[in-house]
Amino acid sequence: MGFSAAYKILKNHLVSGELNQGEEIGIRIDQTLTQDATGTMAYLQFEAMGIDRVKTDISVSYVDHNTLQMGFENADDHRYLQTVNSKHGIYYSKAGNGICHQVHLERFGKPGSTLLGSDSHTPTGGGIGMIAIGAGGLDVAVAMGGGPFYLTCPGVVNVRLTGKLRPWVSSKDVILKVLEILTTKGNVGTVVEYTGPGIKTLSVPERATITNMGAELGVTTSLFPSDENTLAFLKAQGREADFIELLPDENAEYVRTIDIDLSEIVPMVACPHSPDNVKKISDLAGLKVDQVAVGSCTNSSYKDLMTVAGIIKGKKVHPDVSFIVAPGSKQVFEMISRNGALADIIASGARIMESACGFCIGSGQAPVTEGISLRTNNRNFEGRSGTASGKIYLVSPEAAALSAIKGELVDPLGSVSGDYPDVDVPDSFLIDDSMVLEPEFGNVEVFRGPNIGEPPVTDKLLDSISGKIGLKVGDKITTDHIMPAGQRLKYRSNIPEYSKYVFENVDSEFSSRSLDLKKQGLYTVIVGGESYGQGSSREHAAICPMYLGVRAVIAKSFERIHSANLINFGILPLIFENPADYDEIEQGGDFVFEGLHDAVKNRDSVSIKVNNKSYVLLITASERQRNILLSGGLLNYTREIMSDK
Ligand code: MIC
Ligand code: SF4
């Protein structure tokens, strides 16, 4: 059997293990990216490792999440990043230059390479034919130091595209269709590879919309082959030299093939509060909307914004709608302002935001109470918008623009007047990298304002621990539930402060209860259902619980990035051997773990006693992860390995 494109890249980067599905492998990382909300912790940890200079081909640090600057905290973080990056050889993309994934695709992404990013939407890079994976900041710090990234060798699912999208239907509808088929659950350990004649009809930015939102499937990554469309995009970015062709073998092996005829896709919408709650827009058309927001790393490319401008030109936004537009990068922003498209958007009555995450991460533009908000981004988790009762619907830029005019959800295929603004990749993009600062290396003084804390300290695993079941939650708990962003984002560099808000919107007493236990020398265990830890790569969803004394999470299943983050910070992710035990264990119960050392070293399971009754829990960690757990986390483990050398 031949190789998929994904396996070709993995094979070229393999440093440990073998390409057998389900086995742990280590791969060499060529490029890394961080953003400011995860980056400060990543660089504090990088500093703690004592390595002078990054060992990757290129590492880029973006400022895009925390740009509101209501108080000194965000600006302190930015200055810390700028100086620490310069010292250690990392490129620094200033606030205003754009969203990490959009800018990385435009200026740095390289077919055939590997990219590790401390953000779950790093797979956007799969649109240009890379293996691009999201991970916790500490994993990225280790990769910057030249260490391999470890993952479970994936099974590759082939999504075979045929046909061509009709006008008014776009790549967002394709990924929503894939989400409808695969859902957000049960895809851990897979990679989605797009193949078939239909891929020739999709440009790199359109492909990137699809791979970006692959994150919502919970897969390791998604990718497209690198072909003539990839070359055309790279040429237009003045980066032809970065092109290599990368196609799957004719007889490539896939674990499953899903056929999708692009010409049959209709406009789709993901309804509250999950990206896989997908319906046809035609089933919901007429829904009154209060807010429409175009932007985010999913849909903020030149094509997306030119399409919006083409639709809205000469029209006005509905009086009851607040219409928000945030271009994804300075490149996009400057191009649409120079060619006049931005003027058309402004004239319609839109509110123009800076090139940053903004509304997508709940940093501004919270909708009205009970408000219906149509957005082109990738996540619609409850409360993430900043309005607890807000209802977020995810749609294409086409549906967003048409709905902003009409004041209600419009099916782009149904009620369209006028021509479809068909936008191609331009022959040349506007290239100006002046907002990406080159590192100086060496003698740079690192700025540490009062918002910059210390890297978290973890303790070695204890052999026996006791305490309380501090919280019991249901299925699909997201990292936004565990560690809210929005207004709390500014505390990302300050663990004691940020820890006050763990599970804030689920149980506001959780944090203080856990700290009280910790003061008495007792620990906390969390009980969860299926897919615990969906969503973001934020390692704070592990660091802050660890700080509060959480030492284990017991769930029916875990999402990949979060489970790795728990291990990296010395928290045991344990799975119910018998899922029905979930119903028996109650919040507030007294627990005891004994013989943890032997179990973590040598066994596949461990028992927990809750109120004196025993339950069996599975340990699914690899041998390397078991050693990390015994050391009390990845930072301790890495230091131990370095001192052994
Ligand atoms: C997100 O979309 O949830 C974020 C904010 O980009 C996160 C990273 C973070 O929490 O800082 C992600 O997707 O990893
Ligand atoms: Fe930023 Fe939203 Fe993309 Fe996360 S999903 S990187 S918050 S734009």
Provide structural commentary.
The mean pLDDT is 97. The strands form 6 sheets. The chain has a 7-stranded mixed barrel with strand order 21-22-23-24-27-26-25, surrounded by 4 helices. Strands 7-6-3-4-5-20 form a 6-stranded mixed beta sheet, covered by helices on one side. It has 21 helices and 27 strands. The protein has 645 residues and is of the alpha/beta class. It is globular, with a radius of gyration of 24 Å. It folds into 3 domains: 5-264, 2-Layer Sandwich (Aconitase, domain 3); 268-406, Aconitase, domain 3 (2-Layer Sandwich), CATH 3.30.499; 465-644, Aconitase, domain 4. Helix 2 crosses helix 3 (73-88), helix 2 (36-49) packs across helix 5 and helix 6 runs parallel beside helix 7 (204-212). The chain binds alpha-methylisocitric acid and iron/sulfur cluster. Residues 37-38, 65, 119-121, 134, 361, 379, 485, 535-538 line the site of alpha-methylisocitric acid.
List the helices and strands and how they pair.
Blueprint: H1 5-13, E1 14-16, E2 24-27, E3 31-35, H2 36-49, E4 58-62, H3 73-88, E5 91-93, H4 100-107, E6 114-117, E7 131-134, H5 137-144, E8 149-152, E9 155-162, H6 171-182, E10 190-195, H7 204-212, E11 221-223, H8 228-236, E12 256-261, E13 268-270, E14 278-280, E15 291-294, H9 302-312, E16 322-325, H10 330-338, H11 341-347, E17 351-352, E18 372-375, E19 391-394, H12 397-406, E20 436-437, E21 465-472, H13 479-482, H14 495-498, H15 510-519, E22 523-527, H16 540-547, E23 550-555, H17 560-568, E24 572-576, H18 581-584, E25 590-593, H19 596-602, E26 605-610, E27 613-618, H20 623-631, H21 634-644
Parallel strand pairs: 3-4, 3-6, 4-5, 6-7, 9-10, 9-12, 10-11, 15-16, 15-18, 16-17, 18-19, 21-22, 22-23, 23-24
Antiparallel strand pairs: 1-2, 2-8, 5-20, 13-14, 21-25, 24-27, 25-26, 26-27
Helix pairs in contact: 2-3, 2-5, 6-7, 9-11, 9-12, 16-17, 20-21
Bound molecules: alpha-methylisocitric acid and iron/sulfur cluster.
Residues 65, 99, 119, 121, 296-297, 357, 360-361, 377-378 line the site of iron/sulfur cluster (SF4).
